[in-house]
Amino acid sequence: MKALKVASVCRKFNQSPNKIFTLAASVLASVALAGNVQSANASPIKINYTQLATSTQVLQAKPVIAQVPTHLSTISAQTQPWNLIPIVIVGGFVLFVPLLFGGLVVIGEREVGIVVKKFALSGKGLPASRLIALNGEAGLQADTLAPGWYWGYFPWQFAVKKESVVMVPQGEIALIVAADGASIPPERILGKIVECDNYQDARKFLTHGGEKGRQIGFLTAGTYRINTALFKVITAATATQHGMTYEQLQVHQIPADKVGIITTLDGSPIAAGEIAGRSTGGHDNFQNGQKFLDAGGQRGLQEQVLLSGSWNLNPWLVNVQKVPMTEIPIGYVGVVISFVGKEHEDVSGAAFTHGSLVRQGHKGVWVEPLYPGKHPLNTEVMKVELVPTTNIVLNFTDRITGQHGYDSNLTALKLLSFDGFSFDLEIFQIIHIGASDAPKVISRLGSMQNVIDQVLRPIVGNYFRNSAQEYTILDFLTARSDRQVEASEYVKSALRAYDVQAVDSLIGLITPPEELMHTLTARKIAEEQKKTYEVQQMAQTQRQQLVRETALAEIQQELVKSEQGVKIAELNSNSRIQEATGEAESIKLKAIGEAEGIRAMGNAKAETYLAGVQALGENGYTAMQMMQIVGDRNVRLIPDILVGGGSGGNANGLVDGLLSMILWNQTSSKQNSTTNGINQPIYPRVPANMALPKHNGHAQINIELPTEKVEQ
């Protein structure tokens, strides 16, 4: 029956949320069960002490109600009320005496006890500058209570506040603010790190010189029992409550293609004339802030950078800016101009008087360029000037701009010729800079754009302006190839002094005055037409040759026949020649014979004539010959009409002669006609000794000629 009463009391205590009553109920149940109280109406009960002991554990962060083994609740409720009175009395004594007079405090395994001492028996109090008691003074105590049972913390003298342990998840950090400790020196803004078991031992923190305020140390992932009376812990979950962001309390991740540029917020000041803090070692890439400060680390921009990886960094000490790595493309080198580093030490040599070069790690232009690839450079304290090592074309024209952009300010040259004409000239200049010469070029001129604007443009422009004034515009146009060769040699020589190689100078579009363009165009068209005609002539010649060859091939048979015919003709000709030669010989012989006959006849006639002359005399023989000729030829010696005149001046004889002539003409015209059918009239002949009538001393003849047309 007593056991049933104990179980009933335990159930009543289990309904209370107070841990003290829960503990008391557990103790009371233990005492009752330890006496082996059995009821006469109930069977013996076996107590599982392991379960009972487990039920008395109250070590969780939240209140846990002790539980009595469930088999006790199965006991019959047939219990008498007065049987509980002794149990209650004994349980109350056991419960309240330790609590009131023993000062029992129970701390769970995930809790930490913060002790506040209400008063000290010695009457000693805390100094005005202190918040945490170290020597038993009244107030917040430095020492905390770990999990377990503690006696002597009487409620009238002590108050114990149970706080949950601090948990920092993976990938995060937690910051610490100390409420007590020494003052931070004016030259620093963060409290130094002291040996205090990651701020879990408040006494060590205070006794070893820990400083109040924001701490340079921080908590990484893990579980910590922190005296929250002394330390305020800021985690990512509570960051916004303290004016911070969630990202600031994350572990810093630097990607593989980026670098972290560091700016520190604490340390010694940067020396005058410097723009970044010098590199110091031993601080594990700024993860150990105290070692950074102990090594003389300076606040502000840092030379050192963070490479890819994960880094535990205190955002109150380190600010990280993630920037891409410096990439040097193929076909370029990077000339580094460093604004930080060791003191300047020129290594360019005495021959190079236009600048200075330094080794890597020194201030100035580095003598060794960066080759193609990605380089983890601090672009806040270094400048990288890209220099092309391949041939680049610089276009002196508005029409074309290279992808490199160096010629964006270049325009076509405006030139004046010798004969006073103004014209525009496009130039395409090809240059090359060697990798080893790139630092010299940058040291001398500062940048690639300065090379173009301050060196190349004046040299090229000045040469062509001078050259144009030595020639007329037509001479300049027609001899542009010569001008191009001269320009190339001149520019090569001029740029060599600046460690720049001029590959070639090319003349582009020339824009002369409009009136000259017509002349040049016509001339060029004529030249091209001439070439066209020559080509056409060649084509015609080849076509003729083709036709000839084709015809020859087609008449090859006729050609053979002709050749044979020629041979036959030659033979016939030779035959005819032989025949003609024979005929000529025959005619010759015949002529010789006839000539001999004529000569013989002539000789005979001559002999006859000589014989006649000798016989008749020369005059007689001649007269006889003439008479013979007259007779043979029928020559008339007496005229058909004879007109004569009397001595008495009578003109009738003339009239009669004329009438006779007219009649004779009319008769003879019908009988005598020429071969062409035209009548030939016979005019009267007047004898020389004819006497004519005179009038005033002159002879007059009146002749009436016929007017009739003679029929043809």
Helices, strands, pairings?
Layout: H1 2-14, H2 19-34, H3 49-55, H4 85-102, E1 105-107, E2 111-117, E3 132-133, E4 139-145, E5 148-150, E6 158-164, E7 166-168, E8 174-178, H5 202-207, E9 213-219, E10 222-224, E11 231-234, E12 252-254, E13 258-264, H6 289-294, E14 300-306, E15 309-311, E16 318-324, E17 326-328, E18 332-338, E19 364-365, E20 373-375, E21 382-388, E22 392-396, E23 413-416, E24 422-432, H7 438-445, H8 448-468, H9 473-478, H10 480-496, E25 501-511, H11 514-554, H12 556-616, H13 618-633, H14 652-671, E26 694-695, E27 698-699
Parallel strand pairs: 3-4
Antiparallel strand pairs: 1-5, 2-4, 2-6, 7-10, 8-9, 8-11, 12-15, 13-14, 13-16, 17-20, 18-19, 18-21, 22-24, 23-24, 24-25, 26-27
Helix pairs in contact: 1-2, 2-4, 8-10, 12-13
